[in-house]
User: Fold this.
Amino acid sequence: MSEKPLTPADYRTNVHNNWCPGCGDFGIVAAIQKSLLEMQVRPENALLVSGIGCSGKTPHYIGTYGMHTIHGRSLPIATGAKIANHELTVIDVSGDGDGLAIGAGHFVNFGRKNSDILYMIYNNGVYALTKGQASPTMDKGMKTKSMEEPSIKEPINPASMAIQCGYTFVARAYSYDINHLSSLIKQGVQHRGSAFIEIMQACPTYNDVKTKEYFTPILYDLQKEGYDAVVKNPSDANEVREKKLAAITKSWETGAKYPIGVFLKVDFQTYEDYLKEKMPMMKEKPLVKHDISGIKITHLMEELTF
Amino acid sequence: MSEKPLTPADYRTNVHNNWCPGCGDFGIVAAIQKSLLEMQVRPENALLVSGIGCSGKTPHYIGTYGMHTIHGRSLPIATGAKIANHELTVIDVSGDGDGLAIGAGHFVNFGRKNSDILYMIYNNGVYALTKGQASPTMDKGMKTKSMEEPSIKEPINPASMAIQCGYTFVARAYSYDINHLSSLIKQGVQHRGSAFIEIMQACPTYNDVKTKEYFTPILYDLQKEGYDAVVKNPSDANEVREKKLAAITKSWETGAKYPIGVFLKVDFQTYEDYLKEKMPMMKEKPLVKHDISGIKITHLMEELTF
Amino acid sequence: MVILNRVCWMAGGPQGGGVNVSADLFAKACVAGGLNVFGNIEYNSNIKGEHSFYRVRAWDSNIRSHVNLVNLLVALDSETIHTHAYEMAPGGGIIYDGEEINLDMSDKGVAGVTQRTDIRLFPLPLTTIVKSLYGPNEKPNMIMKNTVMVGASFGFLEYDFSLVERTIRQMFKNKKPTVADFNVKAARAGYDHAKENYEGIFECKLQSDHYYDRKSPDERHMLIRGNEALAMGAVKAGLKYYAYYPITPATPIAHYLEEHSSECNVHVEQTEDEIASVCSVIGAAHTGVRAMTSTSGPGFCLMLEGLGFSSLTETPIVIGLIQRPGPSTGMPTRQDQSDIRFALHAGHGESPRVIMIPGDVDECFQIGFESFNIAEKFQMPVIILSDKHLGESYITSKWFSEENMAVDRGLIATEEYIKKKGSYNRYEITESGISPRAIPGTPLGMFRTTGDEHTEYGSISEDAMERIKMMDKRFRKMHEVEKYYPEEKRIKVYGDLRADVSIIGWGSTKGAILDAMEMLKNDGVHANYLQILSASPFPSRSVKKFLDSAKKRIIIENNYSALMSGIIREMTGVLIEHKIVKYDGRPFSCDSIVNGIKKVIKDSPREVILGEQGYERAL
Amino acid sequence: MVILNRVCWMAGGPQGGGVNVSADLFAKACVAGGLNVFGNIEYNSNIKGEHSFYRVRAWDSNIRSHVNLVNLLVALDSETIHTHAYEMAPGGGIIYDGEEINLDMSDKGVAGVTQRTDIRLFPLPLTTIVKSLYGPNEKPNMIMKNTVMVGASFGFLEYDFSLVERTIRQMFKNKKPTVADFNVKAARAGYDHAKENYEGIFECKLQSDHYYDRKSPDERHMLIRGNEALAMGAVKAGLKYYAYYPITPATPIAHYLEEHSSECNVHVEQTEDEIASVCSVIGAAHTGVRAMTSTSGPGFCLMLEGLGFSSLTETPIVIGLIQRPGPSTGMPTRQDQSDIRFALHAGHGESPRVIMIPGDVDECFQIGFESFNIAEKFQMPVIILSDKHLGESYITSKWFSEENMAVDRGLIATEEYIKKKGSYNRYEITESGISPRAIPGTPLGMFRTTGDEHTEYGSISEDAMERIKMMDKRFRKMHEVEKYYPEEKRIKVYGDLRADVSIIGWGSTKGAILDAMEMLKNDGVHANYLQILSASPFPSRSVKKFLDSAKKRIIIENNYSALMSGIIREMTGVLIEHKIVKYDGRPFSCDSIVNGIKKVIKDSPREVILGEQGYERAL
Ligand SMILES: Cc1ncc(C[n+]2csc(CCOP(=O)(O)OP(=O)(O)O)c2C)c(N)n1
Ligand SMILES: Cc1ncc(C[n+]2csc(CCOP(=O)(O)OP(=O)(O)O)c2C)c(N)n1
Ligand code: SF4
Ligand code: SF4
Ligand SMILES: [Mg+2]
Ligand SMILES: [Mg+2]
Assistant:
């Protein structure tokens, strides 16, 4: 391989894009591409995994390896991929139905592992690809034009839930702010451990409430306002607890001021670090590079011989 | 039916119980029976739903209606039952594997509805019935005698998670403290909306770390220490937020002092209230009592006629 | 030559561009005039922009399928013209925006319409017409072009405009009155433009009130889809709880019920996934209400533990399985019939179930109703196997008869019953295998059910003899189902007993097969047709009888491996010699079936594989 | 009369009471002496207290199943005696705690042992013996009673005690040395007590080194279970990632691999559910490692979307499906063979897969290995269908041969390959249907896969012609599988070609069938037996050939509806006249099969249903 610097073209594909005009997803694709380019992650060393939904189509438009998988299951799939080759940059993207309805169990349990994957949920409040039913993030009392009646269920707050579930980098972004989002993606990829970004994604077709006009006046950048999300001493349980509570508090803000930016960052040992301790050969190289020809099982048979 | 007062015998069954000697589950059964008796809930008007696990066997030992269902799915099953007959007292009990691993998605999404069900998780840190693997509540670094290596995953804190997910009554109890537990069960049943009780359940067979000896010295009763869990004005969003944060903070306490008791109680409109508003006949009587013979669909055909 | 009351009309264009509304209007206006209509839609798993189209066949006689030829094409964009030019009937016409679309595209290398000299182009000045509808200070809404084109369609067809107007007013009756007014105006402008500029040029004509009299009470017709008919059957049966997770093509059932939730007192729950859907249905059914869920393949994959639990615990649930092409996400908005074996064997262990297969909207309604009686009488899950084509295609149908439809809830253990008996065992071993069930809330009926194997009382048992008794009990119920729902009801035979070819089919192929049989008859080929309406219990004797007396046997299936032929061989021993299959994600048209059958008659191939655009491969 | 080297020994008692450890010791000590052993366990879905038992058959010749008669019963409680008295062989003996259990229970109305005059009771003074092992200030541990009883067993059998001692030391080698010492002491005490008090009284004897020479390198034998053999095959194949969610009876595979994780560099992941198990396996396999999961019915229900995705995206995964009785939770710790149709048709849509069915531990090992080659060469899911009986029963087996086992990873698109080709299409249409796959990390190989139908490039396509091409491509691979894994490998035939009866079976019934055949031969009945090792691709021609040349055909299955007979009829047209089934949650013993076959020969019933305690029903 030539090692000349990568260009934007390296992150594109020729696949016809059929998202609606004005969809926030375009911005997300651009931000992923921008961040990979800026980090000079080689396309062959990145794997983008997605579920099913409008959001699910993302990998088709990005020139890395990609898996457009099944509804709600992208996280476990990404998990397996990461363990098979922990040198890959693995990014998982889900819709809010994908990740918080059918996939909620994986969302919760993935948080427990601190595996070095960046997970992003496109929060558009609706099941877009199935034509606009309420997703679990839709506000109670809210009604879009495609709904018969307003929602009567409390919404899930994805960022807050991620903090609760143990993700060690938690942020929120806005699909139309590509620069800010791509900077968060870079931080998320570079973070060692499980990173989560909730992306407020405009769906002009089905979500006629949470539009650009809705968001623009209320968004503010946590970091610009001096919010310090970083745990200085990860082995200080008190500091961790305080920072997490502060992060949850921030993530609950609504109304006239709606925060984007980083809520929490704490550096713990990653899941992959633990596995390397356990399996000597994984420390040397990723599982995928192990030579599997000619394995002998004599010692296993010996054990069962009396 | 004779309406003479109910006695303990009304809540028993003749089913042979095969839990291990000393299992905390015995205390839970006793507490459920005691609370139902004290509330004089008629056995025919209560439905106990469970999943699979040692915990799952609970309904067999209690003289109400009961459903011992499938692993991780007791909550959705309970949900359907409650809507079919909202006059029933519906109590759902799960194991921690049941409710927080395979069933975590339902746990999260049930919290959104404020349906009038009491949900209890038996937190014993292990998958007991499958012989002692770590459950999602097992502490990181902890190792029971049945495990090969210590757990390398962060635990889920069920009470905290319940607060995060929108349950409107959240408490923690201890399986060997039958009086306290049964008082919480009564509160949970009487609470209008989704109630959650995390029960620290001793499993002497597989969890040789979190034993009676472990718990006895550290447990303290929140209410005895004057902790006020009740939201006075549920329409005051600030008070709700403050109380929830305080509840989360409390639920995170560990070490020398470990709280049991009520973390949060807030009274919102229930899911069933909303449905009654929507369906006129449900206001009159539960769906199960509607007369379904001789329904006419003329008006539906009329609509499609041009 | 005038072709009267036999037109295949099509609208095509980008998704979200108004194809559906235009075609709805066209179809409904035809129905308003008493014509028979069959309409089917092909669209992508996409929200906006991809090409979609909607065919409407309006006919004087009772048609039940589409044909591949188009007489009149309304093209909302140029892609539509190039995509569909090949299927235009000779003499057919294409309506499009002459001011926007330039059809001289030979230099761009686009094949298609420019090479057809046998069709007519109707380039309407749409922008001009739409602008003319507005006042000088109003901003013209170009979406009105669609209405103009529908209006023009009726102009070419010389249809009675008052029917078009009435339909528009009915369609927009819930909007501001000006909306209807404006649409009428636009349609009229198109209508007039066509009449004025192309009078007599187009050979197809539509007349109203040809086939049936919409005013006579016994002759009332609806324009209905299979999904709606199914939902109506369920409402009629007393459905109280419907749970779903959105999935094409099953969602429309939920949306239909949601819209009618208040008036029908049916609760529709959108759950967090399909596991929760089926489980909440089990909870509701256990608690005594009639409850149902519907889904398509991916969702059904998630329902199997629930299905098995329902069968083992003898809880009566109904599941609609609306097929689409798999495996995996496959082709979410397309047509396929490949889940029949899956439905039969879904779930671990051996568990009795009933699988009912409607083939037309009337059967959707009947089965939508009857499934609940069967589920409750025999206390087992009933799967209704439908598909995208049956579920989403529109057809004119007489009003359903509501006669002789009695709700039968099966054996219920009431308080009185239990008192009389003295004790209550939920899973009492009986001769029929059916045990009266107590509904929670019933005094004295308290029992515990379990997904474990159990005693009559309902407690867990691992005893070998109890196991045998319980397995036998549950399977005995299948014999009872066979009596209640006898073979005569599980098959239908159409056509002469003595026929040249005998067709076997199931589900939504019915419409195209029946239409094809009529076409074949005109060509001197006499066919008969056995429709299988149940996969479990399987009508083995009737199927064998039919097959044994057949001359040339052809199975027709909308899947790759002709799954039903395997079931038939397993159940009857008969190997059907010829297969006609289609697995390209599209339904059969009647003309493609005619071609396939002719191929079989001519060359006797083992298998004919059909596809779009006349694709045909014989093995 | 002395019965030499043919003993059926059983230990029974409450779960958690030491049955397993006792029986392990007994079995291993027999193996240490070069005897053939078959051991199987019956236990409840319960942790402590319910009755469980463990049979060990120790034999001079190659046995592969249990028989229903017991020669020597070690009863840890009185329930064991009353439960198993009926199955004692005449002349058999029962060892129990004579100081605790009073067998004169006639007044309590307990039937059983008290009515058997043809067996011997060995009431040992266990408390006294155990106490005698301890010093005056030590607290005696009564669990030692179990070891005393095992020791006594060998005393009755006059076995070489040094083998018992050696086995104890090996079993406890990871504990403090005093543990082994103490157990040896306890066993010795039991041994001596039996020898001293009952010398010559018991007719069965065991001698060491009878059948094979454990010291010769080619004759090394292991005591192994199917689950372990499967895991060893997978390790040999280069397994790197194994995911699971706990479930009986599949968990032992995971535990075995977990124990060997560090030395074999296999990661074992306990996921949050079975959906995550199969999905993470897909992710790992896609990323280039050999990956597997195993489960039982309830878990398999949750894996179907993953299975379909794997088939459609051509991702090579291996799934072990270890059957247990369903439906639903059923009987979690018991035996059944009823998921074969489910495995065949699991998942919506039509998706190629391979289903391999081991019948003994050697085949578990072979298939555990070969499944990965097939999965990767043909890029599709492979299901290994095993069951509780095969997975959890112990058997002596020669060391597996590791000869001729080559890892074949199929077509991989390396950087060089792609460079040479100039471009890369992941789903390139090829004659074989197989397209080289690029592993993430490979420069130039970047592609996007999808569960939607797709183009060769891997992007979503809803085009009708692309669909046909892709379906054809995927199914073409099945033909390639048939070549690589030919019919000769998918069946095995045992016995004479010209036999009185021809048996057809699959999976774990193999051991009992082979043993039954030998027993029948002694009775003058000549049987042959066709073992089916693959459900997909199905060995239709070979099965038909075998059936066509058979005189009397009997299918034997551990399920209710003889599912394989349906598959055979579907695939070959042949209706097998006789069925022997068992669906009581227990495996066949060889003697029950002998009885079943004799019944068929005598009365020619359509079906014989067998159960425990000699239950037999003929239809
Ligand atoms: C098991 C399963 N159930 C249902 C579906 C249908 N389905 C496709 S996309 C989708 C929802 C998408 O919503 P979301 O995840 O929010 O993504 P968005 O389209 O909003 O980006 C659903 C339910 C499916 N593909 N698989
Ligand atoms: C789908 C499915 N997967 C796995 C199992 C096996 N299984 C039975 S109980 C159990 C775990 C029980 O653990 P928990 O929920 O914590 O309950 P406990 O036994 O500790 O009370 C599992 C995994 C099952 N029954 N169903
Ligand atoms: S429906 Fe919404 S989310 Fe989907 S492509 Fe259109 S705008 Fe984007
Ligand atoms: S294993 Fe644990 S949870 Fe299960 S019955 Fe025994 S003590 Fe109780
Ligand atoms: Mg969404
Ligand atoms: Mg537990």
Observations:
- The pocket of iron/sulfur cluster (ligand 4) is lined by residues B 19-20, 23, 25, 54, 124, 128, 203-206; D 47-48 (CB under 6 Å).
